[in-house]
Structures are given as C-alpha cells and as structure tokens.
Amino acid sequence: MFLGVDIGTSAVKAVAADEAGRVAAQSASPLSVSRPRPLWSEQDPEDWWRATDAAVMALDPALRAQVRGVGLAGQMHGATLLDGEDRVLRPAILWNDGRAAVECAALEVAEPRTRAITGNPAMAGFTAPKLLWLRAHEPDVFARVRTVLLPKDYVRLRMSGDKATDMSDASGTLWLDVGARRWSAPMLAASGLDERAMPRLCEGPAPTGVLRADIAARWGMKRAPIAAGAGDNAAAAIGLGVIEANDAFLSLGTSGVLFVATDRFRPNPNAAVHAFAHALPERWHQMSVMLSAASCLDWAAALLGFNDVAALLQAAESAADSGGVIFLPYLSGERTPHADPFAKGVLFGMSASSDRAAIARAVLEGVAMALRDGLDVLTEAGSNIGAIRMAGGGSRSKFWTRLISAALNRPLLSSDNADVGPAFGAARLARLAVQQEDFKTVCAAQPVAGVQEPDADLRDAFAARQPRFRRLYADLRESLRSVT
Questions:
Q1: Strand partners, 2
Q2: How far apart are CA 367 and CA 290, in angstroms?
C-alpha cells in the first residue's frame, strides 16, 4: 500500500493506493483561508499539519499498517517562513495572494535575467516577490527568516524532520534555474537570500527521508520512506498519466489550470505561461493558470441565493443562453494571460430581463472563455494540444464540461480517479521511491471513462463571443486597477 497526501487550499486529501495501482481508500480534512486585508490570502501552517493528521487517521487502520511509502503533493508558491529553530514566523502567504505586485517589478529590475533564468515572469503569487514584500513591510520578520519552505515541504518537515523539495514545486518559487534544475544564486540574491535558506532539491520519485518514529507510531505505520513528491498540478499529471510531450489535462478546482507535458524546457514568459519542471526527471511542462475557476461557482451561488453549486448548475442548464451577459472571472486577480493581480470580476451587459439562470450561465461561460485564453497562449508557446483529460471537482458537472469543450474546441476525457489526482499522483511517486520500476508503467494513463466532443452550435457561439470577452478586459484594465 502507498499513501499520497495532497496539501490543498480548501482541504488536505489522503489516498491509499494498492499494489495494483488502484485507489483503495481516500479521506479529506477541510482547511480555511484567511483574508485579513484586500489582496491577502493566508493560512496557518499548523492547520496543514492538523488536517494532514486528521486525513491520515481517517483511513482504515488496517490499510495504514500496510503503507510502504508516502508521497506528498501540495498547493504551490506558498511562503512558509521559519526561524533558526524551525518555528513558523507568521501565517503562510499563499499562491492566490496579490499583495506583492509592486515587488514583481522590483525583482525583475534587481535581476534583469529573471525571465531567462526561470522561464517565467515575476507574478505576485510566486514565492520570491513575497520575500521582497516581507523585507519592505515586515523587516523584523524578514531578518529572522532562516528557511523558506513550500506548503507540502513544511508537512514533510513535520513528518520526518527533513528539509527537501522537488523540482516541480521549486519551479514556482522563482528561485530555480528551471532548465538546469538547480537553485539559482542570482535569483536568491535578488530576494535577499542564499541557498542556505533553501531545502534540498530532489526529483519527484526520490526518497527524502522516513517517517519519524512518533508519527509512524501514531498513524500505525512502518517508518516508511517519503518521496520528494510534486506541486499539486504536476502530481495530478502523474496521477492521470500526463507524462509524454503534448499530453494535457484541465484541472477545475479553486483555480483553473491547463497543463501540457513537454520533453524540454519551453518557456513563453511574455504571455504569462508557466514553464516548470515536471515531477519526473528530464521532463518539463507548461501551464496556463487562472486564479478563480470553480471558486467562481461558489461565489455566484452565494451571491444569487442558490442553496448550493448544484442548484446553480441546474439553473444555468435551464437557461437558453446568458442573454448577452459576459462574466470576467477575475475574482482574485489573474495570471494567464494577463499577469494582473488587480484584475476584478465583472458582470457586464445585464438588463431588466437578466434573471438568476442567465447570470449563472454567464458565470460558467466566463470561466470557459478564460480557459480558452489560456489554451491559445499555450499553443503560441509551441504546444500541440489535442484531447484533454479532466481533473478536479468541477469536472463532475456534465453541463459545464460540455460548455468548456465547446469553448476550447477540444474533446474532454473523463476518468474515474480525476477528483483525487494530486494525492493519487503522490501515491504513485511514493511507489517509485520504494520500488525500482519503470515510471512509464507506474504512471500509465488512467482509463478513459467518457468523452465529451465539442458541440458544433455551442462551439460557433463561443467563437463569436470570445473577441468581446477579451476586448472587455482590455477596455476595463485601467479602471479595475483604480478600484484597488
């Protein structure tokens, strides 16, 4: 048995995978996000550990006793700041935090080779700009920082006492020379740090240590080795079998991610495409990332007075169309393709006849069109994307899947384990850490459970609407910035 643990934004998920590669059991423990000021998004690292313990303990003790290896996945970019005694100095600053917008420009001035070294533009959600913000606004805390860890790697520290990370998660810090797969001294220096503050770098399947004796005893497990693991999206790709060049998947969770595997480092930083190392050696990937995807549905359901997201989806499906209403889904700013932490959500074109159902449909369509923006810049970056696998909780809606397929003009493939992708991928990496197996066999593609082909009428309607969607953001960009 192999255990995968995914430190998400809204929950920690644990998956036990058996020797045949099947999901034997899964559990989850919820997390909450603190937003004490506009643009801020934080979590207490202790909450990650409590939720991890709860998720693991919720699994059947008989399965826990059989665990031979542990793998970790997690939300990327979060700045977890430790002092010389490995004590947490302040709440972790998360991936969807936008406070460091000014520091992004400062970082690229301090190190003009930022995009060449990292393959990515400086964005507020990445880790390095957060440290520049900390140095400017909380200098006493910055002076005490001795280690910076990503969320899953803080959990690793609690599990084993080891400070280590993997290449995929490290790619999102802006401190990694992504092509060379090593820490970049110039990027660290531009942030006021050096390599002593960084965890040890490992490839995703590499073992980094073993469970502490007291943790193993509490969980009723052997002192199993812990794989380096992966950032959440790279782990989801491992779980789905997206490992060969041009393999792609779409994750519809809190954020919306279109991920495509590549056989070499292929950056396109000027279009806000993420070019990161994959969780397997000698592999990389590109991502377009929108910060609010399925979270837009939660927001809209509450705003419009629906009992839950299921009721919103039902109403949206009942609407013939959106009645001309356009929704810009930038509730937490946006990354790809705008790299704009000041972007805002917009409902545009409403009239007296705009009812809840039409607005609900506009929200679904707005996310779909934003995903199309991401697909187009990935194509411009050289990826040749065909059928796309689906992952994340949002993928369970057949109606939304139909809309997205039409907006992207691509077939969407569903599989049975799509909603546990990162944790399942982490379990696969744990297996590779324990057993010398061919990763192509262990990380084989999940069987396809269903295919959504693009609906021709919907496809044509989206194609006609997409230019208006893009033009609306361009027209409002400066006005939205002034709102903040």
A1: 17, 69
A2: 9
Q: 356-380 and 309-318 helices cross at what angle (nearest 10)? A: 90
Report which secondary-structure segment, H or E, holds 465: helix 456-483
What whole-number distance in Å separates Cα of residue 399 and Cα of residue 407? 13
Q: What is the pLDDT of residue 381?
A: 82
- Whether residue 254 contacts residue 295, with contact meaning beta carbons closer than 8 Å, is answered with yes
Q: Which two tokens stand for residue 325?
A: 């209403």
3-state secondary structure (DSSP) of residue 450:
strand
Pairing mode of beta strands 412-414, 450-452? antiparallel
| Per-residue pLDDT tens over the stretch 15-53 | 999 999 999 999 999 999 999 999 999 999 999 999 999
Q: What's the average model confidence in pLDDT over 203-215? A: 98
In this prediction, residue 420 has a pLDDT band, given cuts at 50, 70 and 90, of low
CA distances to 36, 183, 469 from 194, in Å: 30, 9, 43
For residue 425, give the 3-state DSSP assignment. Answer: helix
What does pTM read for this prediction?
A: 0.90
6 flagged as catalytic: no
Beta bridge partners of 209: 226
C-alpha distance from residue 290 to each of 43, 322, 368 (Å)? 20, 22, 11
54: helix, strand or coil: helix
pLDDT value at 241 more than 90: yes
Beta strands in 291-365 (DSSP E): 326-328, 346-348
Helix axes 356-380, 398-408, angle to 10 degrees: 40
- From residue 445, alpha-carbon distances to 1, 238, 428 in Å are 20, 9, 12
pLDDT for position 418:
66
What is the three-class DSSP state of 15? strand
- Show the DSSP H helices in 326-448 as ranges: 356-380, 398-408, 421-434, 439-442
Residue 347 reports pLDDT greater than 90? yes
The residue among 156, 105, 100 whose CA lies nearest residue 133 is 100
Over the range 227-261, which residues count as b (16 or more CB within 10 Å of their CB) and which as e?
bbbbbbbbbbbbbbbbbeeebbbbbbbbbbbbbbb
Q: Which of 232, 247, 373, 419 is catalytic?
A: 232
Q: How many CB atoms lie within 10 A of CB 105?
A: 11
- Chain centre to alpha carbon of residue 96: 10
CB count within 10 Å of CB 393 equals 17
